[in-house]
């Protein structure tokens, strides 16, 4: 089971200000917390500016080590991704590229939630990310949640309007926590 020392890390997969992915990631975090599952949130907007220097491919800046530690020490990763132009955001790929190979994702449980303005709810983004994380030897949890029509998905309270989607999100979080526990034993 995830612990305070090794929580599930919810990753908001874009650095866009006021991103819908961050709103969904906060809902995901709340699902874990309400179930008593240790979890924390990381938004790609938190990436230190110096990580974008081309020299970082060879040597990572000191400010990046906290992020690396959070990913490597997480019990599992719950990636929330938007769909931009038929794919996931480039900054998410860069984030993945900057993490150590192979230890960042090797045998790491990973699940995905997608959101998009269109009808497919980031299906393409998740499909592409599964290939990348699979290549990096992650253990991909089979249940994903797709949230289409994201521009109309939220109530004024910040909750999802559609109870079915909200229920699937809760079920995904509960199942993923069990998946992390089973792999950690």
Molecular structure report:
The chain is α/β, with parallel strands linked by helices and 185 residues long. Strands 1, 2, 3, 4, 5 and 6 form a six-stranded parallel β-sheet that branches. Helix 1 links the parallel strand 1 and strand 2. The relative contact order is 0.18.
Main attributes?
globular, 185 residues, 6 strands, alpha/beta, 5 helices
How is the biggest beta sheet arranged?
A: 6 strands, parallel
Helix content: 25-40%
Helix count, DSSP H or I runs of 4 or more residues: 5
Strand content: 15-25%
Unreliable stretches: none
Computed Rg: 15 Å
The number of E-state strands comes to: 6
The topology string of helices and strands comes to EHEHEHEHEEH
Shape: globular
Look at the helices and sheets and give the structural class: alpha/beta
Distance between the termini: 8 Å
Give the overall average pLDDT. Answer: 95
Helix-strand layout with pairing:
Layout: E1 8-12, H1 20-34, E2 39-43, H2 65-73, E3 76-82, H3 90-98, E4 109-115, H4 123-135, E5 139-140, E6 145-147, H5 163-184
Parallel strand pairs: 1-2, 1-3, 3-4, 4-5, 4-6
């Amino acid at each position: 089971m995830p612990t305070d020392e090794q929580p599930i890390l919810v990753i908001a997969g874009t650095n866009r200000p006021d991103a819908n992915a961050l709103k969904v990631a906060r809902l995901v975090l709340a699902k874990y917390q309400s179930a008593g599952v240790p979890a924390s949130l990381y938004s790609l907007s938190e990436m230190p500016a110096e990580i974008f220097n081309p020299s970082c491919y060879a040597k990572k800046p000191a400010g990046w080590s906290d992020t690396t530690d959070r990913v490597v020490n997480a019990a599992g990763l719950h990636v929330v991704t938007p769909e931009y132009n038929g794919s996931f955001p480039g900054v998410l790929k860069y984030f993945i590229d900057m993490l150590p190979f192979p230890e960042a994702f090797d045998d790491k449980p990973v699940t995905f939630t997608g959101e998009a303005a269109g009808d497919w709810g980031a299906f393409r983004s998740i499909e592409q990310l599964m290939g990348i994380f699979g290549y990096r030897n992650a253990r991909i949890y089979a249940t994903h949640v797709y949230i289409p029509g994201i521009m109309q998905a939220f109530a004024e309270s910040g909750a999802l309007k559609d109870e079915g989607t909200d229920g699937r999100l809760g079920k995904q979080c509960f199942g993923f926590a069990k998946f992390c526990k089973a792999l950690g034993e």
